[in-house]
C-alpha cells in the first residue's frame, strides 16, 4: 500500500462503521419483515398481536412495596454523624441552612441526647 498511517486507518474504520450501520439496518429490516409476517399469520388464525419497538433506555425497576426504607434510629444521623436518644435523621434538619450537626443546645431544644 502506497498510503499508510493514521489517516488511512481512520478512513478505513469510518468506512467499516458505515458498512456496519448498513448491515445492521438491512438485518433489522429483514428481521422486522419476518416479525410482521409472523404477526400477519397469527392474525389470520385469530390471534392479534402488535409489534412494539422498545425505545431502549435503562429498565426502570418497579417500585417494590417491600423495599427496605431507611428509618430514623437505624444509624447515626447523616448530618450530625452521631446517634441520639430518641433517634433522629436528616429530616430533623429541615429548615436548617446551611445544614450542620446539632449543637448541644439545639439537641436539648429538641429533647435529644447525644449517644456514642
Ligand atoms: Zn442530625
Topology diagram in text:
Elements: H1 6-44, E1 83-85, H2 104-109, E2 113-115
Antiparallel strand pairs: 1-2
The protein binds zinc ion (ZN).
Defining traits:
two-stranded antiparallel ribbon; single chain; mainly alpha; 2 domains; 5% strand; binds zinc ion; 116 residues
Structural class assignment: mainly alpha
Q: Total strand count, please?
A: 2
Low-pLDDT residue spans: none
Succession of helices and strands:
HEHE
The span between the termini is 75 Å
Bound small molecules, by name, code or SMILES, are: zinc ion
Q: Mean pLDDT across all residues, rounded?
A: 86
Strand order of the largest sheet: 1-2
| Number of structurally distinct domains | 2
Number of separate helices: 2
Percent in helix: 25-40%
Largest sheet: 2 strands, antiparallel
State the oligomer.
single chain
Gyration radius over CA:
31 Å
Describe the global form: elongated
Amino acid at each position: 500500500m502506497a498510503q499508510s498511517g493514521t489517516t488511512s486507518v481512520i478512513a478505513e474504520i469510518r468506512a467499516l462503521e458505515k458498512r456496519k450501520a448498513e448491515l445492521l439496518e438491512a438485518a433489522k429490516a429483514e428481521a422486522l419483515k419476518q416479525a410482521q409476517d409472523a404477526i400477519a399469520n397469527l392474525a389470520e388464525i385469530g390471534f392479534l398481536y402488535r409489534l412494539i419497538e422498545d425505545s431502549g433506555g435503562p429498565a426502570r425497576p418497579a417500585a417494590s412495596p417491600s423495599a427496605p426504607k431507611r428509618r430514623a434510629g437505624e444509624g447515626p444521623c447523616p448530618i450530625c454523624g452521631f446517634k441520639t436518644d430518641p433517634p433522629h435523621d436528616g429530616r430533623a434538619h429541615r429548615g436548617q441552612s446551611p445544614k450542620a450537626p446539632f449543637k448541644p443546645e439545639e439537641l436539648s431544644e429538641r429533647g435529644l441526647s447525644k449517644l456514642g
